[in-house]
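Here is an idea for our session: we take a single protein and study its fold together. To get us started, please write out a protein record for me. Start from the sequence, derive the backbone structure tokens from it, and show both lines together. Go ahead whenever you are ready, and we will take it from there:
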Amino acid sequence: MPEKLEEGILYVSVEYCTALHKCVCGCGNTVVTPISPTDWQLKFDGKSISLSPSIGNWSFACRSHYWIDKNHIRWAGNWDKDQIEEGRKEDQQKKARYFNKLSISEPSNDKLKTKESLPKTSWSWRSIWNALISKN
């Protein structure tokens, strides 16, 4: 990842299963979104990117809340303290169910690639997009 992030770019690290971007409200804070089955999911459809679920920056002074949906920002409503607490509790329960189910039901498979065996790559979607456009 670059030391200085540019606004309007979503940076993705496959190695660390993480996406970074500057808060879209313009406050300058760096937003870190872990990519996993129980955190955020990143979708690239060949033309646009989406990140879900919504991004609620509750610990920032701006308290911005938005979706990144097909290269567009969709603003979401503000949440009060009770809604934030309930959302965090639901996230914790979702993780507990996922990892409990995973440890009980998934068979071991030595042929699966581990994180360490995957290529170590970081890129910005802008660089991928530019590479795709330049091929046409």
